[in-house]
Amino acid sequence: MSKALQIALGIITSIGGFLEIGSVVTAAQAGAAFGYQLLWAILLGVLCLIFLVEMSGRLAAVSKHTIVDAMRERFGFPFFSIVLLGIVLVAFLVLVAELGGIGLSLQILTGIGFPWWAIPVSFGVWALMWKGTFSLIENGASLLGLFTIAFVVAAVKLHPDGASTAHGLLPTFPGEDKAKYGFTAVSILGASISPYLMYFYSSGAIEDEWDESYIPINRFIATFGMSFGGLLSMAVLVAAALALQPKGIDVDKFEQAALLMTTALPKWGFYLFGIAMLFACLGAALEISLAIAYFFAQGLGWNWSENLQPSKDARFSFVYTIIIFLAAIPLVMGVDPIKVTLMGMALTAATLPLAIVPFLFLMNDPIYLGEHRNGWISNSVVAIVILISFVLAVVSIPLQVLGS
Amino acid sequence: MKLVRDVLDKQLIDRENCEMGRVSGLIMHVGEKSQPRITHIVIGGETLWMRIHPMLGRISKRLARWWGPKRDGPVRIPWSRVETVGRDIKLDVRARETGAIDWEIWIARHIIEHIPGGGEKGEEEE
Predict the structure, then answer these.
(1) Do B10 and A73 touch (CB under 8 A)?
(2) pTM for the complete prediction?
């Protein structure tokens, strides 16, 4: 495959795979409650994500190690086990949210309640993992995820005001409802900076056998793929600000988020929202399930590859099988996926230091990266954004929990 | 070579490039007159959990008695079988003969191969 084609495919899959229930619900809530005021949180999150994804690819291309691989090796099992516990618990919560998102999308499209969909959806996701290859999951799901470009169409059709949109890119303090503002900002940051995306990306680079010649390609894909993906999140926020805020609609339910599409596209916006979210959450559910299985397999030194027959990497396949079916249980019991989503995103932000700080140490280690290790710009950007996310999370999560 | 940095927790690969776990621990012989030397590489949950707390090691040992493949104690591989120490540690052994991938084989046999599409039965025998 030519390098240009690889870059194009990488960018397209990044765009198609960017949105998921977390980024859509948090952006829709932000737009509905605070207008354009929280656009800065998406900008900050995406900026940090560009650096992190580029680093994940660079680590794999230069050292031939995935992040998890290097983390276990460099920091040892006792520290690794703490990271494993924290990251897997949060990723599991996000997986519940994504499976719930598929269920809610099917509820919109068919009228049958989401708890009824929990088992068939989990089975479907598992079957794709069981039979599919890495490129089917990476490219197939992401290409279907391109339906999410419909959010940009909706935002443009609502004619946003350029000056106010630009103003939202600068952080402002809210007049009232400070706790909700902080919590929403944290959830947006958690939804944008998803550690599972880094684990998935670095494992993908190893599955695709990247070497140092991929460093420029990696930089292009990370920068443009994540930037365009971030534009989709911003489009959701802008559409929500224009369609929902004037009517005083808060996004507590999935159907309310669908209204941001129906205002712009009255005839088929509702169904388009359902289809776009179905594919977006499906792609994310596949990526998270794989990321969790990668985490165990790479950390404990088992055989792993999504391209192998399940019996050839039995423990790897066993982990995703168990995880996917466990994630269906809360949904069968009727737990609200939107609440799980918001808590999952906020906890992701709160646990970011656990995932990112050791990663930054690795990225500065000459043993792994030699001359390709991080410069001061990437170190500073990531460290500052992670610190902001962590402080915001520590302050706003208790306030939100007490408030509700 | 720095043992903790270069050996402990490193990926182990057998002569057929099968990933056979990571170095959970090392056994060292300390003689009265001779220099201390590494005699074995240890692989296994018990040793691994012991590194966090001895109680966790004991729990892991008890759990392993109830469920899964049966074996006495963790897997020990003589240091003389180490071929190279680089990105991974390459061993001159066959993983399935050492017991290091007993769990992999047990899960494949008892669970994965019973699910349609999981892989053919008896394929592991080769």
Answers:
(1) yes
(2) 0.93
Q: By the 8 A CB rule, do A346 and A260 touch?
A: no
Q: How far apart are CA A275 and CA A107, in angstroms?
A: 11
Neighboring chain A residues of B21 at a CB cutoff of 8 Å: 300-302
As a CATH number, domain B3-114 is 2.30.30.240
B112 shares contact with chain A (CB less than 8 Å): yes
- The answer, for B111 touching chain A at a CB cutoff of 8 Å, is yes
Domains contained in chain A, number? 1
Give the integer Cα–Cα distance in Å for A328 and A305: 24
User: What is the value of ipTM here, to two decimals?
Assistant: 0.91
Contact at CB, B112 and A302, closer than 8 angstroms: no
Give the tens place of pLDDT for each residue, A218-269.
999 999 999 999 999 999 999 999 999 999 998 888 988 999 999 899 988 9
Structural domain for A16, as ranges: 3-403
Q: Which candidate, A123, A44, A55, A81, places its Cα nearest to that of A378?
A: A55
Smallest CA-to-CA distance from A240 within A155, A182, A170 is with A155
| Cβ–Cβ contact B11 with A under 8 A | yes
- Cβ neighbours of residue A11 closer than 8 Å, sequence gap 6 or more: A220, A221, A224, A225, A228
Contact A130 B118 (CB under 8 A): yes
Cα A32 from Cα A26, distance rounded (Å)? 10
The string of pLDDT tens digits covering residues A183-194 is 899 999 999 998
Distance CA A342, CA A352 (A): 16
Neighbours of B37 (CB within 10 A): 10
Q: DSSP state, A285? A: H
Interface check for A303 against chain B (CB to CB < 8 A): the answer is yes
Residue B41 in tokens: 């590489």
The nearest CA of chain A is from the CA of B59 a distance in Å of: 16
Alpha-carbon gap: B112 to the closest alpha carbon of chain A (Å): 6
At B47, which amino acid appears? T
Q: What residue of A is the nearest CA neighbor of B118?
A: A310
From the list A20, A3, A200, A181, the residue with the least C-alpha distance to A96 is: A20
Q: How far apart are CA A359 and CA A381, in angstroms?
A: 14
CA A31 from centroid of its chain's CA atoms: 19
Please list the ranges in chain B whose pLDDT falls under 70: 120-126
Interface check A366 vs B, CB under 8 A: no
Express each pLDDT in A118-129 by its tens digit.
999 999 999 999
Task: Name residues 193-232 of chain A within 8 A of B (Cβ).
Answer: none
Q: Which helix (H) or strand (E) holds A234?
A: helix A226-243
Instruction: List the domain boundaries for chain B.
Output: 3-114
A374: alpha, beta or left? (left if phi > 0; alpha if psi -120 to 50): beta
Amino acid at A401: V
CA distance B33 to chain A (A): 32
